[in-house]
Amino acid sequence: MIFQPVLHPALLLVFLIPIVVLAAIGLGRSSAPSERWRWVGRIGMAVLLATILLRPGLPGGSAETLSANTDVLLVVDTTASSIAEDWGSDHQPRMDAIKKDIQAVMDRYPGARFGLISFDREAEMRVPITADTTALRSALDGLTPEVTQNSRGTSIGVAAPLLKDALDLIRNSTEARGRMVFYFGDGEQTADSTPESFADSAKLTDGGMVLGYGTKQGGKMRQTTGTVDGGAAPYIEYQGQPALSVIDQDNLRTIATELGVKYELREPGKKLALPDPPTTTTSGTASTGGHVGTAIELYPYAAGLLAALLGVEMANALAQLIRLRRGALAARKEH
């Protein structure tokens, strides 16, 4: 089951709980069976409306689109610094901006296949190269930084060998496809070793970008435990003060040079100018009729049930109004 909520789930609860409580009170005070069933219907309408706003769906759908013969590999920093709170004037976590930019990349290359590599102490292939964008979105929703207690320092190049292996696999496939790499991170090297080089991937890369997140002033990072405890976690401390994560643009420029792509510092309000797909994949190879993964939307079924319950509620209200008017007319005639 996949959810793509229109509103934050917390806001949905704020909306739903009072309505259900009031309806439950009305249900408890009703004695007539018909009236009790009406309150049950009202509770059902509230639940159905909340379901619609959650936009549930099932993976496995598909949509016809342009096939660009391009494979895009996303390399994402998921260390504690990825949630450093220095994005924008309201100090949002960097990961919020990263996820938004990844969505922009997906929108920029419709029909492309995508793969997701995340890294902290180790690199992990979260999503092997696929045209199923629903799987990618689900993986992005689940991107969280490593547990603070397990953090032992991270090399910003730890994903380099895995990236090269993934690019080699794509190159050795039977179909010739363009290859793009996008690296999302802050360039902060916290391991004692020298960062691994991405140079071996340059000859396998046809385009992409290195995108940097963070500020010179740095941002505080909250602890992560891997559990849901319902409250705001305390900040990570160093020598009795909140630890700060500071962007290292020199390291990010080095990674861009090794990959042979452009580097850009991301800033709030600045539109992301993404490169064109490789010319070898758009000249005579793009075709219509391809399919990419989408969710099978379930909310229309909830909407249909809601419409039916609303129709019953309106019919009951109209019948009650007619009875009241007839009663009023009868009372006038008696006087």
Q: What does it look like?
A:
The chain is α/β, with parallel strands linked by helices and 335 residues long. 39% of the residues lie in helices and 24% in strands. It has helices at 9-29, 33-54, 94-108, 133-141, 160-171, 249-259, 279-282, 299-334; strands at 2-3, 56-67, 70-77, 85-87, 92-93, 113-119, 123-130, 178-185, 207-212, 219-220, 237-238, 241-242, 244-245, 262-265, 287-297. The strands form 5 sheets. The protein has a 6-stranded mixed beta sheet, with helices on both faces. Strands 1-2-15 form a 3-stranded antiparallel beta sheet. Helix 1 (9-29) packs antiparallel against helix 2 (33-54) and helix 2 (33-54) packs antiparallel against helix 8 (299-334). The relative contact order is 0.17. InterPro entries: VWF_A (IPR002035), vWFA_dom_sf (IPR036465). Residues 71-259 form the VWFA domain. This is VWA domain-containing protein. Keywords: Membrane, Transmembrane, Transmembrane helix.
CATH topology of the largest domain: Rossmann fold
Number of strands: 15
Query: What best-fitting shape do the alpha-carbon axes yield?
Result: elongated
Number of domains: 2
Transmembrane segments: 6-27, 39-58
Protein name: VWA domain-containing protein
Keywords: Membrane, Transmembrane, Transmembrane helix
Organism: Mycetocola lacteus
Q: What descriptors fit this protein?
A:
335 residues; alpha/beta; Rossmann fold; six-stranded mixed beta sheet; three-stranded antiparallel beta sheet; 15 strands; VWA domain-containing protein; membrane; VWF_A
